[in-house]
Amino acid sequence: METTSDNNSVSARQYDLTKTVSQSLDKHLIFPLVEFLGARGVYGEDELLKAKLDLASKTNMADFAADVYKNLYKTTEIPAEMTQRRTQVLNQLKQLQAECLPILQLLENQNLVKQLRADKNFTFAYLEQNHQVTQESVDALYRFAKFQFDCGNYAGAHEYLYQFRALNSNPEKNFSALWGKLASGILTQNWDEAMKDVLHLREFIDSKSLTTPLKQLQQRTWLMHWSLFVFFNHSNGKTGIIDLFFQERYMNAIQTTCPHILRYLTTAVICNKRRRNVLKDLVKVIQQESYTYRDPITEFLEALYVNFDFEGAQVKLRECDQVLQNDFFLVACRDEFMENARLFIFETFCRIHQRIDIGMLAEKLNMDKDAAERWIVNLIRNARLDAKIDSKANQIIMGSQTPSVYQKIIEKTKGLTFRSYMLANNLKGETQGYMEEEDVEENQPTAF
Predict the structure, then answer these.
(1) Quick one: which of 431, 422, 424, 421 has its CA closest to 248?
(2) 180: which of 132, 172, 338, 447 fits an S-S bond (Cβ 3.0–4.6 Å)?
(3) Residue 417 burial by Cβ neighbours in a 10 Å radius (0-12, 13-18, 19+)
(4) Which residues sit opposite 387 in a β-bridge?
(5) How confident is the model over 346-369, as pLDDT tens digits?
């Protein structure tokens, strides 16, 4: 017979998106997800160690791979090929370091770099003329940064890529370096810089100057997955994810390639009190995609706003708690989600009932009668509901809510300017002609 812990593990695995999400992540970005699953006990230790070893063997983190191997097989010895791999990595590191030594020596002089940037002289033309920096050394810096990233030196890679992008004039390499810089920023938890990189990548991808429409779709898919790290850690992330994912091109990408992203968009909308205006559009998308993807979080909104099934919504809310606890990106906003979801239930309940017993609500809210009444009064005031409290009857009496003509106009025209802008851009893209589509590689996306 399964224990409660076993049942929880089965439930956690049922709704675990780690494998699905990992298909659109760089190998190094998968490590934090695997560590999280280990801490939560969702999978067995050996199972996760094998996953780590498989990931590490595809990188230059030879020492880390050796440590994982020893832990997995309970040994102090490692295979000869691992030792050889470590020697190869060290030799290659020395070679790359020698190739970009002139520019590395310049970058080590932080005061000089700071002065050059202040004088706006940190350019390739100026450094070539005054500091013997060549194009070959700049290109070598890119390769060195990429190698450092693959070795797990994310802070060093972030710094080198930042300097490289200031000196490089090749748009394709700048684009590639920006992916690497974003990944490095995520892995060093530099959320402000990572947010800037997400926005810059969006501009690159939407420009259509470097790729075909089919590859744009792939890159938008990658960007949405990588940006989850940023949006659920940055102070303004829950607004940022709504702004980005509700753009027509990105919503099309969600519906075409990754409907599971609706879990994260739904969570952001529920947690963001300032963006309730997108709720109706979100519910429509959830309904449209329910045949391809559904989980307790999307089903909660469907039960509440489509079926008006309050009992069903409460059941789904309990399941949401389990999902949130075992999702790497959402675990930190669990309490906020649960609180706001309860408010959603209460507000919707109030809008479709004329009289509500305060005692019944207090019992459901696990509060005493007086505290519940105060809480309800504040909630009604904040939600701007037409209601009053009948203290004698211990009831909330809801008034009729007929929106004014002005309010109807406001609701109908919300987002009209933005949608017109997107339509104009799409038409402009059509007139420029379609670029020939190329086959999209199905390999694991990388930071470079």
Answers:
(1) 422
(2) 447
(3) exposed
(4) 398
(5) 878 777 777 778 777 766 655 677
Tell me the sheet residues that pair with 357: 395
Q: Please tell me the distance from the alpha carbon of residue 194 to that of residue 81, in angstroms, as a whole number.
A: 36
**What is the Cα–Cα distance from 62 to 78, expressed in whole angstroms?**
11
Q: Rounded to 5 degrees, what angle do the CA atoms 24, 256, 215 make?
A: 60
> From the CB of residue 8, how many other CB atoms can be counted at a distance below 10 Å?
17
- Which contacts of 277-286 are long-range, i.e. CB under 8 A and separated by 24 or more positions? 277/414, 278/242, 278/246, 279/305, 281/246, 285/251, 285/254, 285/255, 286/262
Residue 337: CA count within 13 A, CB half-sphere: 30
Q: How far apart are CA 354 and CA 346, in angstroms?
A: 13
Tell me the pLDDT band of 1, cut-offs 50, 70 and 90. very low
> What is the per-residue pLDDT for 342?
83
Q: At what angle do helices 80-99 and 62-73 cross, to 10 degrees?
A: 160
- CA separation (Å) from 398 to 10, 22, 215? 43, 48, 53
Query: Which range (5-19, 62-76, 269-283) has the least confidence?
Result: 5-19
Distance CA 39, CA 326 (A): 10
H-type alpha helices, 384-415: 405-413
- Which residue in the block uniquely carries the two structure tokens 């700048």? 174
Phi–psi pair at 16, nearest 5 degrees: -75, 125
For 293-406, strand residue ranges (E) read 355-357, 387-390, 395-398
Q: Which amino acid is at 91?
A: N
C-alpha angle 254/259/262, rounded to 5°?
90
**Closest by Cα among 223, 122, 108, 87 to 156:** 108
CA 418, CA 356: separation in Å to the nearest integer?
40
Triad 13, 17, 23: Cα angle to 5°: 130
Q: Is 292 exposed, middle or buried (0-12, 13-18, 19+ CB in 10 A)?
A: exposed
pLDDT tens digits, one per residue of 173-220: 999 999 999 999 999 999 999 999 999 999 999 887 657 888 899 999
pLDDT of residue 413: 62
| Cβ atoms within 10 Å of 5's Cβ, excluding its own | 9
In the chain, what percentage of residues exceed pLDDT 70? Answer: 84
